[in-house]
Design brief:
This protein has two helices and nine strands. The chain is α+β, with helices and mostly antiparallel strands. The protein has one domain (about 1-135): 60s Ribosomal Protein L30, Chain: A. The strands form two sheets. Strands 1, 2, 3, 4, 7, 8 and 9 form a seven-stranded mixed beta sheet that branches. It has a two-stranded antiparallel sheet with strand order 5-6.
């Protein structure tokens, strides 16, 4: 049995895919970035008239990204402590990894999820971080 999950409490998907899909007791989240659910803005991002990034705040983006993940988990009947695997995509590993790793440690200290972090050239919007998460769902 499979169930599609969508929520208004996380940034809307950019295409024809759900926020998450439940299969049995596992929950597979689509890639979730730092765009806010409220207005689709990216915290700390400044762009010029041509859309070039002038400044971004990786710490603010981490907090927003993690809030989006939490919202999807809760809408799915799971929670932060049920995360088992995280794949993190950063657009600038050398510059952003130290701050991201510190913030990640604050959120995941007690979770101890498996993690892979990779650098990518770009993401579909001018975000600097995206997470791909697998979590479990406790049966009632």
């Amino acid at each position: 049995m499979s169930k599609v999950i969508k929520t208004d409490f996380a940034a809307k998907p950019l295409g024809a895919y759900p926020h998450a899909r439940r299969v049995g007791n596992l929950l597979f989240l689509s890639g979730i970035g730092s765009r806010t659910a409220k207005d689709n803005s990216i915290p700390g991002l400044e762009q010029d008239a041509e859309g070039n990034i002038l400044r971004y705040d990786i710490e603010a983006e981490c907090h927003s990204c993690f809030a989006n993940v939490k919202a999807v988990l809760e809408a799915s009947g799971s929670n932060w402590n049920n995360i088992v695997d995280v794949t993190v995509f950063l657009t600038n590993m050398k510059k952003d990894f130290p701050v991201y790793n510190r913030v990640y440690g604050e959120y995941f200290k007690d979770v101890q999820a498996c993690r892979t972090t990779v650098e990518v050239k770009s993401l579909p919007t001018p975000i600097a971080i995206e997470l791909k998460v697998i979590a479990s769902i406790d049966e009632p």
